[in-house]
Design goal:
binds fe (iii) ion, 8 helices, iron-sulfur, Rieske_2Fe-2S, Rieske_2Fe-2S_sf, 6-stranded antiparallel β-sheet, alpha+beta, (2Fe-2S) ferredoxin, binds FE2/S2 (inorganic) cluster, 386 residues, globular, 18 strands
């Protein structure tokens, strides 16, 4: 069913206003100093979604990720718990794990002078350690990074005093999605990975967030998505309304690239969530997309003012993956959306340096909720500087 303009809309995040709102100025997307402040005051202070817990499926499995300006090493200890550390040897600062992922047999050993740490970060061995009584093994342990698990992912926070995870991550997502979407009913933590695609996007991370938040572009660049979600052709994104799920087209059997049937409904969701798509941004770097038979989760890792790595996971019921079912048509829909979106962001990035964008652009009424993101961003930077 398409939504007609005469139908009442669900309650809006920000009421539509007649006036236009200015965007951020172009330099916010190009200036290395602003990017440095964002790394310092946003990505190194807030909870960031780092890795999928199940990717580290046994003790000694590790993954390194770039959070802000730090390399963070996440591993599973002998007790089966996830641990996060700064990926820096406490001897003379060499990077401990140089691979993006891997498996150690017993301990983590620095490739420089072979200082060795156990999977809880304790310094357990070093050449001639017994002849160096001044080395305090406790003091020279790896620097621990706070870690929490939610939705089957490990979230880490580099702040000395991390904000409340319950409020700033779970509470914020639940509030933005609303009760109607009830994210916990999708039981994301029990799902299995069907596909992962890593996108190297030549654009500032904020262009990617802003693009994800609006659907003014959907009719122009997302033909496959608007076939399945015709109300997106109106230009109003699901994120515009708290708890509003975009309804599937009558002819769409599933959330697939050609509208063909997907898989069985996730067991926990309710009838009201069936045949609907919900989306939420968990600031600063996660997008969650909920459909009846799978969940799509994006994690962003900004590496430069004009470059962002986006890792996108498609998650299904374990029995779907175990059965060897072909997820290609299911994956292809949002993969195309990703490529279409990231192409648009890459086309926009060079213009951020133009004098035409020195004072920025404008947000039309259906994009006004992006203004809240800009307010949040500038408040984070101002509060942090203060
Ligand atoms: Fe790691 Fe020397 S820097 S052992
Ligand atoms: Fe899009």
């Amino acid at each position: 069913m398409t939504t007609t303009p005469t139908e009442p809309r669900p309650s809006a995040v920000t009421p539509p206003a007649a006036s236009l709102i200015a965007t951020l100025a172009g330099r916010y997307y190009t200036d290395p100093e602003i990017f440095r402040q964002e790394q310092d005051l946003i990505f190194e202070r807030l909870w960031c979604c780092a890795v999928r817990s199940a990717d580290l499926d046994r003790p000694g499995a590790f993954r390194t990720v770039q959070i802000g300006r730090e390399s963070v090493l996440i591993t599973r200890n002998r007790a089966g718990e996830l641990r996060a550390f700064l990926n820096i040897c406490r001897h003379r600062g060499a990077q401990l794990c140089t691979e993006e992922s891997g498996q150690v047999r017993r301990n983590l050993q620095c490739p420089y002078h072979a200082w060795t740490y156990d999977l809880d970060g304790r310094l357990v061995a070093a050449p001639n350690l017994q002849k160096m009584p001044d080395i305090d093994r406790t003091e020279r342990a790896l620097v621990t990074v706070p870690l929490r698990e939610w939705l089957g992912y490990a979230w880490v926070c580099l702040a000395d005093e991390p904000p409340s995870f319950e409020d700033s991550v779970i509470g914020a997502a639940v509030e933005r999605l609303g009760d109607a979407a009830a994210i916990d009913r999708y039981r994301t933590e029990d799902l299995a990975l069907g596909r992962r695609v890593s996108y190297d996007v030549r654009a500032n991370w904020k262009l990617i967030v802003e693009n994800f938040m609006e659907c003014y572009h959907c009719a122009t660049i997302h033909p496959e998505l608007t076939d399945v979600l015709p109300e997106f052709a109106d230009g109003f994104a699901a994120q515009y309304y708290v708890g509003h799920g975009a309804e599937f087209a009558a002819q769409a059997q599933g959330f697939t690239v050609d509208g063909s049937a997907g898989f069985g409904r996730l067991p926990g969701i309710e009838d009201s969530q069936d045949r609907r798509y919900y989306a939420v941004t968990v600031r600063p770097q996660v997008f969650i997309n909920l459909v009846p038979d799978h969940v799509i989760l994006h994690r962003m890792f900004p590496t430069a003012p004009d470059r962002t790595v986006v890792e996108c996971d498609w998650l299904y019921l374990p029995e779907v993956i175990d059965s060897g079912a072909d997820v290609a048509k299911s994956v292809e829909l949002f993969h195309r959306v990703n490529v279409q979106d990231f192409d648009a962001c890459e086309r926009t990035q060079p213009a951020m340096d133009s004098r035409a964008y020195r004072d920025g652009g404008v947000l039309v009424p259906s994009e006004h909720h992006i203004g809240a993101f800009h307010h949040w961003l500038t408040a984070q930077l101002e509060d942090g500087r203060a």
